Amino acid sequence: MAKIRTALSMLGSAKDAKKFAARFDDPSRAMPAESLFPPDEVRPELTDARTLLLRVTNTPDGHGDIFTVVHAPAARNSVSVLVFNPNIIIEANATLRELVDDSGYPVAVAIVEEFLGTRIDHIIELTGHALSGIIDAVGPLATYSRAAFTADGFDFVEGTNRLDGAAARAFTAANPVDDAGQTRTRNQRAVLRALLNTLDVRKLTKDNSQLVQVLEHAVDGSQKDPGLTSGVLTQLANDLRDLTRKDIVAVTVPAASERQEDGSVRITFEADVLTALRESLTSDGPGEFVAKLAEMGY
């Protein structure tokens, strides 16, 4: 099986390497550093692990946005992609999305660091249009849905769907079941998992035009913290060069739903499972535990 490398790890073999690096590092793509992270004294200590907070801005109102944490342990022996339900209750009946929308990324980072126990090193925003473009460049994606539904003119079946970029965006933004976004979060995880399984590294290295398409969308649709440079991503990709597809696993962050007397659904973290996930992320080998979560349906 081909070894997994991110697109940036192959820039050295692409004639447009310097162009894409310069565009990604352009100061206009950097969000203000002072508005991104909480005070250092309340944060987990800096380690050799690398963790990135990714938000895909999928819908104008933010309800269909994808909140994801991507974690590579210090040993660089796995990558865990953890998808949050933004409707999860954090405190005082306020949801993750509400707190982030009201107070910005410092609160988002503080919440993730508190519950996962790992320091967020970088933040990146990707537009839904950019993710759709990446999917069109490498797809379609064979994506599993637990329920049949219709959204934005697309009909999705229970079972495997083959999604292009536009269909994938509708699939991840829709809220097909009244369960406070639990089904939508699983659909978002399913698309990210399908994307990871569909990326064909050997094809990308042989087809420079496809690689350029992926990079065009990824670079032009991104905003990020000033410290996340093309050099940082290239070094991380190089560190992860020996990973295979089975070493990169996408799961939902463990959460439970409870229907209230008024008919609404309340989403909270599954405390015991989250504690075990937190312990695994602060070790050198979270990959095995995260893979077990995937087998359990998370």
UniProtKB/TrEMBL annotation:
InterPro entries: LytR/CpsA/Psr_CW_biosynth (IPR050922), LytR_CpsA_psr (IPR004474). Belongs to the LytR/CpsA/Psr (LCP) family. Signal peptide: none annotated. This is Cell envelope-associated transcriptional attenuator LytR-CpsA-Psr, subfamily A1 (As in PMID19099556). Residues 96-199 form the Cell envelope-related transcriptional attenuator domain.
